[in-house]
Every structure is written in C-alpha cells, then in structure tokens.
Design brief:
The protein folds into two domains: about 130 residues, Rossmann fold; about 190 residues, 3-Layer(aba) Sandwich (Rossmann fold), CATH 3.40.50.2000. The protein has 13 helices and twelve strands. A six-stranded parallel sheet has the order 9-8-7-10-11-12, with helices on both faces. Helix 1 packs across helix 2. The longest helix has 21 residues. The protein is of the alpha/beta class.
C-alpha cells in the first residue's frame, strides 16, 4: 500500500488509469475531478491522453473555491488541472461567465479560451443555517464540555495548510499579537483550530507552542474540537488569513478579522465585511472592536444578499448539478 502524494509518478499514473478504467466499466457518463493535489491534474492528463472527453463520458475539473484567486498553491494547482481539462465546473456561478477572470498568480490569468465552463451556484448554505441554530442551542454546553464556561472571549483562529500560511501569515499574526497591550488581550483566549490536513506535520502547532514560551500574559491553546463547525459554534469571533469558510463567518454573525502578512482581497474584504490587519496597531483595534460588539440579525440579513451574489450562490444548485451529471448537452 502507499499514499498517492508520496508515491512515484509511475505509480500515480497507474492508479489514475485504473481509476478511470473502473469508472468507465461502471458506465459513468460524468466524472468530476476536484482541484486538491497533483494527482487530480494527473487524472485529467490521463483522460486527455486517451481522448476520453466525448459525448458519452465527460471529465469535469471542479473549481470549488468561491474566489478567482487563492494564495498558497491552490490556484497554481487549478491552472495545471484546468490546462488538462476541456470541461470546467465552478461552484461560484459567477466565475463561469465569459467576462470572468481567474488567476494562477495575482497577475497571471488562467487561460479558459476554448474551454467549456459551467457554474452550479453551490455554497454550503444549509450548513450555515444549521450553524446559526447550533450557536444558539449548543454553544454553552460545548464550551462547558471543554472547560471554557468562564472564558469571557473565545477568539478562534482558523488555520490553513500551505506554505504562505505557515511561513508568512501565521508568523505575522503571532508577531503582531505579541506587541499588543496586555489590557486588550487579558480576557481573551485564542484557540488555534488547525486545518485537518495540517495536524499531522503540526507546523503551526509547533510554532504556537514555541511562541507561547516567550509570552507572559497571552492565553492561547490548540483546539481539540473535532470539526470546524464546533469551532464556529463556540467562537465569539473568527480570525483567519485565507479560507473558503470566510463567507460563512459573516453569514452566521461572527465578528471576523483577516490577519496576516498582507491583505488577501476575498469576498469579506472586498465588501468591507471584516476587519483587516497586517500589523499590531490594526490588530489591537480589531480585537477591541470585536470584543465590543457582535453582529445584529438585521445586519446579517443585509450581508446575506450581498454575500450570496458575490459567491455566486443559487438555491437551485442541485438542479444545476443534476443537469451537469445526467443531462448535459
């Protein structure tokens, strides 16, 4: 046995061929390949080599992020996978428009010329609505289970899993945090909720522990919560650098700050729906403001339409997906 990412190119190609053959033997008409790692691009390359994109079977490259550019490697992987694909499927229906541009690097366009692009309008809104209810019903009990009943402010940092996050964004956050006045942070517990794929190497966890050894008054711990949903249920505020969950934070009413080495212009930043910080002064202001207020239901409703439009969400996304899978012409 072996893991895909650690195996040799020849092994990966063999697995790709076997996987494609298995799908074809089962009579698959539509095969949707996610953008997540290099193996996804290899699947697309093997389908192209064998000229498998026909009227009988289509391989779609699925771009699930709502943003046209994602730092940290996702967009570079997207470029490689899209290059090998004829059919591109976007979760954000806006990105499928002829006038839309997506990027592999901040100033480098991904060529969609001669590609067939479709958008389904998907975002996990049902999960968002469940989270709103769970924050009301389960927050106190979940905090009690973890010994956080007496924590006045529990601010959750939602971690990433790429070099830009590990080497730049997270260290920049810790550096800024270490310079903030004690009176601002004394009643805050910072909870690092790691990306699931980041836990094994634990790069941000190690960095946090080493950093804490040099701090006298900042309270920070690594989350043992099972899911990001649980982290959002207990949170009084959200901190992040880049995550596709960011619109979710605003939709469930979490005061939110994007913090890192530079500003990443995602949906929340573009529409002024979160604080942005790249230094200790900005972070201090954001932390104090997030302590002072939470978002009202009226404000959340105002944000909802704006965010839905920006992320290209539509309630009939299941119908759109069904058409792509079973009835695409």
């Amino acid at each position: 046995s072996f893991t895909i990412d650690e195996s040799k190119r020849e092994q990966q190609e063999q697995v790709a061929r076997e996987l494609i053959d298995s799908c074809l033997k089962e009579g698959a008409r539509t095969i949707i390949v996610d953008i997540g790692n290099k193996f996804d691009a290899l699947l697309q390359i093997n389908s192209s080599k064998n000229n498998l994109n026909t009227d009988k079977v289509r391989f779609w490259c699925y771009y699930d992020n709502p943003e046209p550019y994602v730092p940290g490697g996702y967009s570079l992987k997207a470029e490689e996978t899209i290059k090998a694909s004829q059919y591109i499927l976007f979760a954000n229906k806006n990105l499928a428009k002829i006038t839309s541009i997506i990027y592999s690097l901040p100033e480098k366009h991904i060529d969609l010329k001669d590609k067939t692009a479709e958008g389904i309008g998907y975002y996990p809104i049902e999960e968002v609505e469940k989270l709103i209810e769970k924050r009301y019903l389960e927050s106190d009990s979940l905090r009690a289970e973890n010994g956080w009943t007496n924590v006045k402010y529990l601010f959750v940092y939602f971690g990433g899993n790429n070099d830009a996050y590990f080497d730049q964004a997270f260290p920049a956050f810790l550096s800024s945090l270490s310079q903030i006045d004690k009176n601002i942070v004394k009643d805050i517990v910072f909870l690092l909720h790691q990306h699931p794929a980041a836990k094994e190497q634990n790069r941000d966890g190690i960095l946090l522990r080493e950093w804490l050894m040099q701090q006298n008054y900042i309270q920070a711990i690594i989350s043992t919560l099972k899911t990001s949903d649980q982290a959002q249920i207990v949170a009084d505020a959200a901190l992040y650098y880049q995550t596709s969950m960011a619109p979710q934070f605003s939709l469930i009413g979490l005061p939110t700050v994007q913090v890192g080495h530079e500003v990443y212009h995602d949906v929340l930043v573009k529409f002024n729906l979160c604080y942005t910080t790249t230094n200790s002064n900005e972070l201090a202001v954001a932390l104090q403001n997030m302590k002072d207020k939470s978002q009202s239901s009226d404000k959340i409703q105002q944000h909802k339409g704006l965010i839905y439009n920006a992320i290209g969400y539509t309630p009939d996304w299941p119908t759109n997906l069904y058409r792509i899978i079973f009835d695409y012409k």
